[in-house]
Amino acid sequence: MTSYGKIYKLTKEGELGIVTFDVSAEGMNTWTREAIDEAGGLIEDLEKASDLKGVIFISGKPENFHAGANLNLLDEMKDPEDTAKAMGVFHTMFNRLEALPYPTVAAIHGHCLGGGLEFALACTARIAKESKTTLIGLPECSLGIFPGGGGTQRLPRLIGYGAIELILKGKMLPAAKAHSTGIVDLLVGPEGDLLKEAIRFTEKIAADPNTLQRKDQDFSQIDAVADMARQEVLKVTRGREIPGPMLAIKAIQEGAKVTLEEGLKIEKNLFVEAVLSNQAKGGIHIFFLKTMSDKPKNMMTKGFEPKPINKVGILGFGTMGRGIIIDILRNTQIPVVVKDVPQALEPGKTFVKKILEKLAEKKKLKAPVEDLMGRLTVTSEYGQELKEADLVVEAVFEDIKVKKEVYEELSQLVKEDCIIASNTSSIPLNAMAQYVSRPERFGGAHFFSPVWLMQLVEVIQGAETSRETVDNLLNFAALIRKRPIVCKDHPGFVVNAVLFPYFMKSLEFLEAGNTIENIDGAFTRFGLPVGPIRLMDEVGIDISYNVLKGKGMEQGTLKNVVGDGRMGFKKSGKGFFLEDGSVDPTVLPLISLKEKREISAEQMQTEVLTEMVKIGHALLEKGIVSDPRMIDIGMIWGTGFPADRGGPMKWADLIGLSDELFGKTFY
Ligand code: NAI
Above 70 in pLDDT, residue 2? Predict the structure, then answer.
């Protein structure tokens, strides 16, 4: 028996070698420096092991085969030569594995992703055990990079054109699907013994290489297929050429026309280009942001024990109340009671049921709609039902007088330890705290509309809100599967504060004689889902007008537009746009033109980003947020800021703007 330090252990089973690997320092097996180094030593020994008839690679972790590249290592790559060298190490390692004089089999259970699958693809064959956690795929494109360890060459050669979609969409397939697409050669049932099956299978291949029926793929149509794939990608990115997927297509297309050896060289060079791009750095950053905010527990105080929530009360059965209820019903078992005026109850119920039915059609519910609706009680009284609530979310009219009335009545009714959260978007929490009897149990939970589609919630800590209340609101966010950020009380909290220049600067561009099409186009090309003028039109132009008025600013164009009865096409049938989506020419005379300044799309993007980043910087300086990640998470999941740019703060770092403005980076 030969031992390989910490990670790889080679044992013998008859004439077969069994390599068990476990990167014990990590939750999942990844290609850490140590893992790469040890693999080199292992392969050297395997090359010399002339007595072996075959080798099986199996993970020592119960739930994970191999999760691929270590993203910290990828993030550190800065220099093209060093990056090429690092990729060369992978290529050499996998080539040597592939060239071993006997069959090698990857025995997969749990995640087998990215560089983990590339390792398995360099083996002669793969067997996989069916389980909830077995997912097989190359998800790199979703991080702004692409599979650069042979994936763009070996996967198409194994399964043909189907590899293109798998790679571009970063699909992760369950074992059975991976088997039917040809990635996996043998499927082991959920109760099967993976190692035993792997031994039997490897012995079979060793005895008769024809066991594996590999065919030569026909790539005669690769140029046309690659062109189609490019068009598909551009449709998704709304015309933006993001390096990862675009270079992946190039690697597959060019690689399909040459030998594997030459294809791997092409892949390596293109990968260096992709991984050093700002989009790749942004994409990797998003992965880290996602990992952190996927589990709000990570943001709670260490050792915190959440208060059980056995009933939630909602005040207000309007747009937001309905949305919050939908998410509680579909994601938890918690009963909900909602209070509103009698005439609001039936329409609210009908709406909630309709959305739940739509979600059921899309198979997004775990229980029948009737069961979920059975947990909802509606009332127009402050009665026993509300009295039992452990948490009440207030979503009544945005009017301090109404809020005062509601809080005073509620405070008299609820249990002493009940947590109250306001969904206000603009009234300072600190102004409302005086109306509740226990301000330490009062905080903000600012959701985004439509709640069941928008992942973000801002958890707001007012001056008197206790840390325990913040932690309990984070726990509530986790229960209803929201992605939270935490901030202190501040006008617009985080997202609306940082988004503010998106509208203000755009109105300034408009009044400087730039067209609506050019302004909106500049930002959709940057990657935002909706341009600023269209967004105002969709949300309601009067809302933007009133927000500004509330800040003491009377915006000329908005005053004229709203004064003309144009609240937006959806709201009043008239706004900046016509039904077909084109600009309404009759709105143009209402623009309050100022001195002409023609601005390019890039300049508009830079000016808006600069203002956003200045606000983000101020939020950090004032301690409204403790961490730039809160701003980036908020903007990506609250506004659709393009994920591959990593959020405004990260993007400012990547393009050198942070340095230029503040002489330092945020990360
Ligand atoms: P909405 O006008 O759709 O609904 C408000 C509901 O509150 C109405 O059904 C009304 O009858 C009810 N209501 C009024 N007084 C009440 C009382 N005393 N007791 C119980 N119910 C009462 O308003 P929406 O849009 O749902 O907004 C609610 C809150 O959420 C506001 O504070 C708003 O600023 C905030 N918000 C709104 C967002 C949006 O996109 N609509 C986004 C984020 C926050």
Answer: no
